[in-house]
């Protein structure tokens, strides 16, 4: 396929329109159909491909998203980097609703998701030690601070399967581990991006306190998540547009592009 974009953006809850003056492109993949078309437009010198990961009408639940097809589609149109903003819950009091977390680690608490492109016959073991791109993380942090957004420079996101939220006992366990963020889509999305030699970035917009802060906050609800997300979507768009304009043309300052080569047994 013709190379139509160099940066991809996956949008989640409450984030179905990102670019104006777009070209809609449908991509078929070996893994089935993606969540939706790619909507391709321009930001600065970059061609950007946007996909709503739940579909444009939010009809695909987190555990049913075809993550491999979505990521393959981004690679197919030429993307070198993929940014994944998402609504997320906080597991720690100091990470407040409305704050942004640029996660540097994840914990996979999902079940049954197709989480790799490598299914043989070549034996491949991609490292997930540092999944998220250091260059993109640095740029997101710097840009957010310049815009006056409260940014947490590091954070671990624990990814649960959904569609249910955590019980109080589960959430308390996650809080006691010291993890900061909880979400339903951050895995395997970013890891699959890395497997495809693209640079992944997570931007978690905190919409609520999870149920583990027992007695201090009410349990999370979907309505509350959307309300806080909508109140902060302008900040998220400002961060993405400003950051994307500053991204260098080539991803030569990190090793993400060599993931596949570095993971094969020789």
Number of strands: 11
CATH architecture: 3-Layer(aba) Sandwich
Helices and strands, in N-to-C order?
A: EEEEHEEEHEEHEHEHH
Helix and strand content put the structural class at alpha/beta
Percent of residues in beta strands: 15-25%
The overall average pLDDT, rounded, is: 91
Give a short account of the largest sheet: 11 strands, mixed
**Residue windows where pLDDT falls under 50 for at least 5 positions:** none
Give a brief outline of the structure:
Helices cover 27% and strands 22% of the residues. By secondary structure, the chain is an alpha/beta fold.
Structure notes:
By secondary structure, the chain is of the alpha/beta class. Helix 1 packs parallel to helix 4. It is globular, with a radius of gyration of 17 Å. The model has no long low-confidence stretch (mean pLDDT 91). The chain is 27% helix and 22% strand. Strand 3 and strand 4 form a beta hairpin. Strands 1, 2, 3, 4, 5, 6, 7, 8, 9, 10 and 11 form an eleven-stranded mixed beta sheet that branches. The chain has one domain: Nucleoside phosphorylase domain (Rossmann fold, 3-Layer(aba) Sandwich), CATH 3.40.50.1580.
Secondary structure elements and their pairing?
Blueprint: E1 7-11, E2 23-25, E3 38-43, E4 46-52, H1 67-76, E5 81-90, E6 100-101, E7 105-109, H2 134-146, E8 151-152, E9 156-160, H3 168-176, E10 181-183, H4 186-195, E11 199-209, H5 222-246, H6 259-263
Parallel strand pairs: 1-4, 1-5, 5-11, 6-8, 7-9, 9-10
Antiparallel strand pairs: 2-3, 3-4, 5-10, 6-11
């Amino acid at each position: 396929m013709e190379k139509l974009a160099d940066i991809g953006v996956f949008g989640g809850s409450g984030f179905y329109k990102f670019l104006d003056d777009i070209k809609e492109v449908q991509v078929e993949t070996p893994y089935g159909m993606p969540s939706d078309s790619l909507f391709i437009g321009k930001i600065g010198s970059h061609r950007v491909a946007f996909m709503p990961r739940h579909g444009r009408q939010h009809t695909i639940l987190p555990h049913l998203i075809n993550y491999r097809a979505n990521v393959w589609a981004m690679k197919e149109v030429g993307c070198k980097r993929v940014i994944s903003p998402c609504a997320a819950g906080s597991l720690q009091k100091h990470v407040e609703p409305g704050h942004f977390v640029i996660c540097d680690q994840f914990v996979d608490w999902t079940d049954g998701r197709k989480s790799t492109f490598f299914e043989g016959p070549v034996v491949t073991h991609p490292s997930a030690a540092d999944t998220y791109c250091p260059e993109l993380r640095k740029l997101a942090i710097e840009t957010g601070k310049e815009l006056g957004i409260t940014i947490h420079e590091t954070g671990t996101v624990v990814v649960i399967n959904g569609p249910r939220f955590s019980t109080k006992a589960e959430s308390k366990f996650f809080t006691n581990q010291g993890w900061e963020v909880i979400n339903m889509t951050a895995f395997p999305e970013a890891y699959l991006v890395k497997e495809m030699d693209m640079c992944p970035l997570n931007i978690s917009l905190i919409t609520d306190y999870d149920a583990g802060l027992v007695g201090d906050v009410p349990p999370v609800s979907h309505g509350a998540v959307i309300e806080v997300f909508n109140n902060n979507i302008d900040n998220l768009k400002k961060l993405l547009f400003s950051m994307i304009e500053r991204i260098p043309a080539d991803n030569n300052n990190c090793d993400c592009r060599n993931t596949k080569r570095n993971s094969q047994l020789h």
